[in-house]
Amino acid sequence: MPGEMSLYEAHEKATRIEKRLREQFGEHTHIALHLEPLKVNGCYVSPKEMNQHSHTSTGS
Known about the structure:
The chain has two helices and two strands.
């Protein structure tokens, strides 16, 4: 999921993916989705921090 997507939006999207998988493979299909935070240079960063990095790198 895009790093700037809210947790709510990511959860909604993951729920839709689960629903489609169950429609295709059956209601009792076991699905495990895991959402990871955004990583930059191996470290987790928040979207707010990412915006600060992009402003710094562009000189804005």
